[in-house]
Design brief:
Elements: E1 19-23, E2 26-36, E3 39-45, E4 51-58, E5 62-69, E6 82-85, E7 88-95, E8 99-101, E9 104-113
Antiparallel strand pairs: 1-2, 2-5, 3-4, 5-9, 6-7, 7-9, 8-9
C-alpha cells in the first residue's frame, strides 16, 4: 500500500492517527478523521421496467472528524470554512456542538469535497 499523500503525525505530542489540519488559517488536531468516496448509480431498465444495467459514477468525497481546539480562545470553525488535504479542497458542511472533557475542547465536523 502506498504511503498517504498527507502528513500523519505519530510523535509523542500527538496520539497515533491524529493530524494537524489548517482550516481557514487556524490549526486543529483532527481525530477520527474519515473520508469516503461515495458513488451515484444510474439504473437502466428495459421496456417493461426490469433492471438490465447500470452506470456508476464517483460523487464528491465526504467525511467527518473530531477537531480538538488548542486553547480556550481557539475559534470554532464555521460551516463554509475550507481546508486542503492530499491535494483535495474540502468545505465544512456541518459543525456540531462544542464538547469538553478533562479540559480539552472538541468539535465534531462533517465536510465534502469542494468541486
Amino acid at each position: 500500500m502506498p504511503a498517504p499523500a498527507y502528513p500523519v503525525k505519530s510523535a509523542a505530542t500527538l496520539p497515533f492517527g491524529s493530524e494537524v489540519l489548517s482550516i481557514d488559517g487556524v490549526n486543529y488536531i483532527a481525530e477520527q478523521f474519515r473520508v469516503n468516496q461515495p458513488s451515484v448509480t444510474a439504473e437502466r431498465q428495459n421496456e417493461v421496467g426490469a433492471a438490465n444495467g447500470f452506470a456508476l459514477n464517483k460523487a464528491p468525497k465526504v467525511g467527518s472528524a473530531q477537531l480538538q481546539l488548542a486553547t480556550a480562545t481557539t475559534a470554532i470553525p464555521q460551516v463554509g470554512h475550507t481546508f486542503e488535504r492530499g491535494g483535495v479542497t474540502f468545505i465544512l458542511t456541518e459543525v456540531g456542538e462544542e464538547q469538553s472533557q478533562s479540559g480539552f475542547r472538541f468539535v465534531p465536523v462533517s465536510f465534502r469535497e469542494n468541486v
